[in-house]
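Q: Predict the assembly, please.
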Amino acid sequence: MEEAVGLVLGHDLTRIVPGQSKGPAFRRGHVIRPEDVPVLLSMGKEHIYILEVPPGHLHEEEAALRVARALAGSGVRLVGPDEGKMNLQAEHDGLLRVDVDRLRRINAIGEVQVATAFDRRPVRAGDTVAGTRVTPLVIEESQVLAAEAIGREGPVIRVLPYRPLKVGIVVTGSEVYKGRIADAFGPVVEAKVSALGGQVIYKTLSDDQPAMTAGKIREALEQGAELICVTGGMSVDPDDATPGAIRQSGARVVTYGAPVLPGSMFLLAYIGTVPVMGLPGAVMHEAVTIFDHVLPRLMAGEVLTKADFVEMGHGGLLSKRW
Ligand SMILES: Nc1nc2c(c(=O)[nH]1)N[C@H]1C(S)=C(S)[C@@H](COP(=O)(O)OP(=O)(O)OC[C@H]3O[C@@H](n4cnc5c(N)ncnc54)[C@H](O)[C@@H]3O)O[C@H]1N2
Ligand code: MOO
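A: Predicted assembly structure:
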């Protein structure tokens, strides 16, 4: 080890003090000093790597940087390299999109590793949405070129911004309309819409009468709503009039019922290009429901079809810890 004094480190050296810290104690390019020797030995380094990159090969940091550039589409910025790893961060709040097929092909190259969050996850500005590093300290450039070729086919990782939509909320239920209980559903919907940058421009109560609810949906539309949420009355009770009311408003129903729990009695319809959602009681009561999966997609401009809902069953049993 003492012979290493004066030589140049080939990669960042990580030091972990359990329960306290993890990070690079020495960085690539550091010239080893005599006082570093006991620290290196305390980190278990009796031997160290000195940088030497043969022709046709890349150092791990340059490789990770090039792979990260190949992955990053709009709304994503690069951070690093640090300990050979590059992170991709969301530049703004939005819907994460991962091209899962391209991701799979890049990870099949061999020694290029790319980990992402799940496709279509809502993310916040500054969230890390993906990370990449290569396995060896020195990698054949051909592997990086293969990743770059896949990246040129189209973006692998993007964050789509939310559109600042004008939103209408129609809260149904005779108990709320007649003032027997206070509305607890409207505030939940309003908070989730506002958190994604939507602006509630219309909010009203309606009795469990299809004609009244349909009329209020039309009123929201006339006042400029670009997305409409109708709450309650979505289930099988004779008083549950909301699906019929949404149909009566002239909306084209994409799905009534979805393979997601909680929230299986959800309805999505469109009046022209304006989405109209029917939100069942669980959306008021549970922290994470189908609403949290569908709203970000609509706000990001996706137009959903029945096939999109059919796909939701796998993973559709939602966890409170999501
Ligand atoms: N036999 C079946 N039972 C149930 C089914 C089913 O398919 N078959 N579906 C279940 C599901 S899923 C849900 S969710 C619930 C209720 O869904 P609804 O959307 O019909 O909810 P409501 O009947 O309108 O209300 C239920 C409950 O919540 C209160 N509520 C509703 N809106 C408000 C509001 N704005 N503020 C405060 N409280 C509100 C309402 O008073 C009721 O107590 O049905 C399952 N059962
Ligand atoms: O549609 Mo209910 O909202 O699953 O619990």
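Residues 141-153 form the longest helix (13 residues). The radius of gyration is 26 Å.
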